[in-house]
Structure formats: structure tokens, C-alpha cells
Amino acid sequence: xxxxxxxxxxxxxCYDIRGPVLDRAREMExxxxxxxxxxxxNPAAFGxxxxxxxxxxxxxxxxxxxxxxxxxxxxAARKAIMHxxxxxxxxxxxxxxxxxxxxxxxxxxxATQALLENNDEVLIPSPDYPxxxxxxxLAGGVARHYICDEQSDWLPDLDDMRAKIGPNxxxxxxxxxxxxxxxxxxxxxxLSIIEIARQYGLIIFADEIYDKILYDQATHTSIASLADDVxxxxxxGLSKSYRAxxxxxxxxxxxxxxxxxxxxxxxxxxxxSMRLCANVPSQxxxxxxxxxYQSIYDLTMPTGRLKRQRDLAWKLLTDIPGVTCFKxxxxxxxxxxxxxxxxxxEDDEQFALELLLEEKVLxxxxxxxxxxxxxxxxxVFLPNSDDLTEAIGRIAxxxxxxxxx
Length: 405
Ligand code: PLP
Prior knowledge:
It comes from Nitrosomonas mobilis. With about 400 residues, this protein is an alpha/beta fold. The protein folds into two domains: about 150 residues, Alpha-Beta Complex (Aspartate Aminotransferase, domain 1), CATH 3.90.1150; about 240 residues, 3-Layer(aba) Sandwich (Aspartate Aminotransferase, domain 2). It is built from 14 helices and 15 strands. An eight-stranded mixed β-sheet has the order 2-9-8-7-6-3-4-5. Strands 11-15-14 form a three-stranded antiparallel β-sheet. It has a two-stranded parallel sheet with strand order 1-13. Helix 4 runs parallel beside helix 5. The protein binds pyridoxal-5'-phosphate.
């Protein structure tokens, strides 16, 4: 019989955060090993529970949540999201401009599928959250990676962004606050990106899922609040700030230059209808999430658990010879650099695998984030301080051997 093959549409689709190294870690766990996981930004798995008032809302409404809802989401949830866009100073958003999805992930797929012809190009940061590159490829498009510069606090290199624009470029993705680097973009930079989008008629896809996970008095500006002529699609959701990743609930907000985008919006509406609607029970938590007590700030304030863990992980990593790391003021990740003169890594997936096999610590290699070099990896600082200390101690031991062999 003929072998059953995957579609050629997957030829350029890659998502290494859940790739072969994770598969090996799972096998090791099945064999009875304890693996310390610094690989996935899933707060609830590390004792960062979703706020109880959100859970109670979902539970209370379960009995009325068995049917489909409007394709774009429950009215009350979208109204709450609309109010949130007002808090973030995004102008002229109506309930109808808001799409609730099964996580930001689904909406990224929807927004790219609705836009791209084969070989259309999208500017995506390098390093990136790799779903963006994967989604563009799956939609037939081509990801053109613009460099974020580690020497400049990982901010996008605008000359490189401009240089990557061609006749088929349709959109710019910005991930702000950023995964994996933790960079936070200043307003002047956001305005410059808007200017580029304006000049070339591009959409701005703004992934802002970490907009409330801010340390050291950092503040976040939604890029969509800075202009009303360029078309913005802004993404956010319950997974990170509200520690409810398993609810699979996110939203996309269309704002700015909507008038010339009516055809694209029709496409978005069609794709939203085709999947009927997003998970309904979790939508009952959105209003309280956005309007209720923001317990995320208890975690990010100077004595908060997340802030303390960021400081600890950063200190332990940068104490290792040949390891340097930008100290992020946002999100859940560190993206350290391994000096190639100390650590001449040829294949960083192999490096991650060896670390896993020898020290039972799971990280994600930098190339998994479409970073073109083999000198970075990402750690998640969600595990508690004891586990972080243990894990980074093991990384240090591994690197010491690596350097001396
Ligand atoms: N965007 C970024 C930048 C992320 O880091 C993640 C998850 O890690 C997502 C989107 C996916 O979010 P969701 O759980 O809402 O699908």
C-alpha cells in the first residue's frame, strides 16, 4: 500500500518548542526520570494558578455554555475586550471588530490564512515566537525575518526591516513584549514601525499577549494606540497574565485603517464562521479577567514570585563563564548567549538534546525561534526558586564539561 504522507504545505512549517527534544524528554519521564522543564511558558503548570474569580465565573456559567455562540465570541466578553482597548487608548474599536478565538494561536492562523496569497511575504522578528513563522508558511506565505539586535536591548533593526520589504510584502509582525527575548519596545520605535507600515501599505500584526507581565516599573504601549490610519490586528488572551493557558481563550482586535481593509475583514469573518465559534465556557471568564482584580501585579512587583525568579535565573545564568544575557523587563523568558569561543556549538538542537540526556534539563535551542545562529537558548523562569537553582546548576555543570572537551 502507498505510504500515507503529510501535505507538502507543511514543508516549511516548524514548531520546535514542542519538537524532537521534547519528545525525548517525554520518553525519559516515562522511563521514570525527573526532568526539570524550562521549556514552555505555561504558568499554571508551575503553581501559578488562574485567579479564583475567573474560575468561579466559568463554573457558574457552565450550565448555559453548552451551545455554540456568535462566531466572533460572546457579546459580554467582547464588550469587556472593547473596554480594555479603550484603557489601552486604541481608538474606534467596536464590539464587531473583536474576534475571540481558541487562544491567540488560532487567531494567528486565522489572520494569516485570511490575508496571504502564495508567496506573499510577512516581516517577522528574528528571534520570534515560532508560531508566527509556521502560520505564515502554512498559509502559503514566506516569512522574511528582520533582525532584533541584542546589542540594542533586542530592539528591531529598522534598517534591516526596511531592507527586507519587497513587492510581495503584506504585513509586519511585532511581538511586544517579546518572547523569547523579553524586550519591550519604546514609543519612538513603535512610531517608526508605523511609519514603515504606512509608507508601504502594510498591516501590523501586534502580538501583545505579555502586555501585563512587566517588571521594574516598565509600562507597555499598544502600537495600535499610536495611529488610526494603518491597519492593526492586536492579539492578547487569558494564557499568560491570567495563567489560564488551558482555557484556550484569546482575542484579536482589528483597528485603525479598517475602511480600506473591508475585503480582508470579510475574509476574517468567513474563517471565524467556518470554525463556528471558540470554546464557550472559557469566554465567561474574560469579563472578570479584564475587569477584576489584576493579581498578575502581585507576582511582578518587587517582592512578587515572578520578579524574584527572573532575578534569580538571570543572576545564576550570567554567573556562568561565557554566558551573557539581556535582563528583560517583561514576560517569562531569558534568552542567554553562549560565547562561541567558549562553546563552539555547531548544532544547537543537538546541544539541547545532550543537555537533556546528561543533566535532565529541558531548554529550547535558539534556532527553534528562527534565530539564525547556534549561540542562544531560551529558559522559562516559571519553575520555583529551588528548581531554577537546581536546573541552572546542572546547566553550569554541563557547560563546564562542554568547554573542556
Ligand atoms: N504569542 C506569543 C508571543 C506566545 O508566547 C504564545 C504562547 O506562548 C502565544 C502567542 C500563544 O498563546 P495562546 O495560548 O493564547 O494560544
